[in-house]
C-alpha cells in the first residue's frame, strides 16, 4: 500500500481505445477498469505525468477523469499530496453490503415467473469454478463480481446496473487489500452455484433466502479480515 503509480505499465495499450475522440469519460472508464483489476491498488498515488503520457491525453482531460472517479468514491484528492486510489474504511464496507442486500435481494424478490435469462450467471459460475481449479484466485474474484452484476442484470434496469457497477467497483478496493484471496472467495463458489441452481429450478424465493445468508456471511468475513488490514497499515487514500 501507499506506492506510486508512476509507470505506464500497460496503459499505453489502452491508448487505442481512446481513438481520436478522447474524452474524460473514456479515460475514467479505462482507469476504473484498471483499479478494479488491481493494477492500481488502494493507496496508490496516481501520477498525472505518467498516466497522461501513457494515454496521450491532456492534463485537463486527466484531471476531469480523476474528478469523475473521485465522485464515484474510487479516488481521493489529498491537498498538496496528489490523487490516490481510495482506501475504504471498515464503515464503508458495512455500508456497501447494506446497499448490496437492499438491491440484490430486491431483484430476486421481484423476478416474477420463470424462466429467467441465466446465460450470464452460468458463465460467471463456470468461469469462477474453472479459475479455482487453475489456482487463479484473482480470476475467481473477478468471476464473483460478474456473478453479482449478472444477478442484478436480471432486473432489466440500466439504472440498477449502473448503481451496482459503482458499488461493486468500490467493494473491489477492499478485496485488493486482503492478502489471502483464496480464503476470501473460495467458500462462495459453491454458494454461487446453489443460487444459480435455485433460479434454474424456477425457485426465486429460495434463491433470495440463499443470497441473504450469503451476503450476511460475506460481510462478516470481510469486515473481520479487512479490519485487521486497515489497523495494521493505514495508508494514504484512507477515508
Total E-strand runs = 4
- Major beta sheet summary: 4 strands, mixed
Helical element count? 11
Order of helices and strands: EHHEHHEEHHHHHHH
What fraction, in percent, of the residue positions are helical?
A: 55-70%
CATH architecture of the largest domain: Up-down Bundle
- Distance from N terminus to C terminus (CA atoms, Å) equals 14 Å
**Could you tell me the mean pLDDT?**
89
CATH level 3 topology of the largest domain: Four Helix Bundle (Hemerythrin (Met), subunit A)
Instruction: Please state how the strands of the largest beta sheet are arranged side by side.
Output: 1-2-4-3
How many domains in all? Answer: 2
SSE class: mainly alpha
**Any idea what the radius of gyration is?**
19 Å
- Give unreliable regions as ranges: none
CATH top level class name of the largest domain: Mainly Alpha
Residue fraction in strands: 5-15%
What gross morphology would you assign? Answer: globular
CATH level-four homologous superfamily name of the largest domain:
GntR ligand-binding domain-like
